[in-house]
Amino acid sequence: MSSTKKGHLSQLSLGGLLITLGIIYGDIGTSPLYVMKAIIGEGMINADILLGGVSCVFWTLTLQTTVKYVLITLNADNNGEGGIFSLYTLVRRTKVKWLIIPAVIGGSALLADGIITPPISVSSAVEGLRTFYPSINTVPIVISILFVLFFVQQFGTNFLGKFFGPMMLIWFGMLGILGGLQIFENIGVFKAINPYYAYHLLSLHPEGFFVLGAVFLCTTGAEALYSDMGHCGRKNIRVSWIFVKSMLLLNYFGQAAYLIPFEGKTLKQLGGANGNPFYLIMSDWFQPFGIVIATLAAVIASQALISGSFTLINEAMRLNFWPKVTIKYPTELKGQMYIPSINWLLFLGCIVIVLHFEESSNMEAAYGLAIVLCMIMTTTLLNYYMITKRIKWYFITPIIAIYGTIELSFFIANMKKFTHGGYVTIIISVLLMTVMFIWFRAKTISKAYTKFVKINDFKKVLAELSEDMSIPKYATHLVYMTNAGRTDEIEEKVLYSILQKRPKRADIYWFIHVNILNEPYKTEYKVTEILKEDIIRVDFNLGFREPTKINIMFKEVVKNMVKNGEVDVTSRYESLNKNNIIGDFKFVLSEKFLSNDSNMIWHEKLIMNTYFFIKKLSLSEEKAFGLDSSSVKIEKFPMVVNPPEIIGMKRID
Question: Which of 23, 216, 227, 277 is the most exposed place for a label (fewest CB within 10 A)?
Fold first, then answer.
């Protein structure tokens, strides 16, 4: 992202605050649709549970969301970018290898959250129709709304994005007004700010501790505050959160104030088929408007999760956690992307959730368990981040101890949901974790068994090959992608391809290396002339959020080199040279396959076989690098891991 644009987004402004409302707070902002309903459950309304529950909500939003995320975690920015993978790129410099585990678990749990949030938000909003049509089946309506939402992703959401901010401003204003009107009738509900009521519920009430599983739903969107920091900037998030938190608390306290006088009754007795406190606090004349506004807010919340999932997968690919998949850029807006495979995978997951659970109240059981895992993983990485910043241990220890205790308590409380639906998001998370682990581990194994040689040892033979007229010219410019991190090294298989597989004569040999940086946005390159007018290496240093468009980037590099007089790209063919025709460029990519001669232990073999199977389903190398397929040659090389010992063959006459 350009420094100008990043600077603009980071500045505190009314426009920035409005954009922040539309992008950041969809998930946490729609929580009032279902939190109080989940706290009460199917049982009778109990004043102790209501006051204790709303007290827990207040202190959860204060300690977990405000202090941990808004005040502490937002400081762990990677050049303005946030999110669990950005945090991982900051702490992986410590060389603590096992930190890959919390990064993968956290990223997988966040993606699983992207599958459950759209169904529960949209279902909760649409179920408001039961006020007018008690027997209506909301499932087809929910699926229709989700289909339209996922379908429009391919066209970009630039236009819709301008609508999100004002719409969420209306939503939060509505939350505050509705809640405030109820509090005015029962001002005593504010006594729940006293943490005693939370303590009383958790320690003395038989089911009190497990109410935390419902309370946790009020902060499920906190991770999004951190993940989307790059879109809006830290200052805009911190200032807008004051307004958002105030409106949320007014609504939560307002719902509690309305319900307390009805102690001993059930929600169904109060509201029939639509026994949701969120809609019960609305006047009858306003309910149609409330349902429409709630549905639009739920769609915006879903959009935020979808866009966040695209960003997360893009980062995962760059960090070798996910197979290469097609990425499209539907608008000119920087950072906006569309990943077809992830889009429809999320849609399929959402449909399965809707059909399986049908009701939003059933979905509440599946919600929260995965995201609390993500929060625990963020706390783990945050611990190491603070260590890298040389923060004193007597500051780190209490912070990690407090949030470790809070999140572990939420995790234990949410485990009660496991058999009631929590298993769904855990299964999804485990599947995503498995793909990430296999992909990363396979890349590590592959790298460990890649042989590199010193390029200086082959300069002479490459120069002579370039002048050898007895060999037909393969290309004017022959380009190889290399994984060699050092400029004086090259893979043995590259030289095998040039010299032995079929001798490839070219006027200039180019070696291109892509280095993924620990920072999000950077596009730099370095040119190393290994042998004048014969061997040139180009190293691209790209941020982990930058698209890999090698074709365009390489053309720009060559153009600048020609302009500086560093290279002559005119064709060396006599007839073309005298007419100043640019020479042809040929890219050669190597594609590995697992050799039958590999001698691996069973789990490595399982990992590599699964890796190559997934690779067949993922994007081809030339498309992943953004190359013109008409100028690319794919060569297959056997990957031999732990080759067997030499067989002692005996010659006989």
Answer: 23
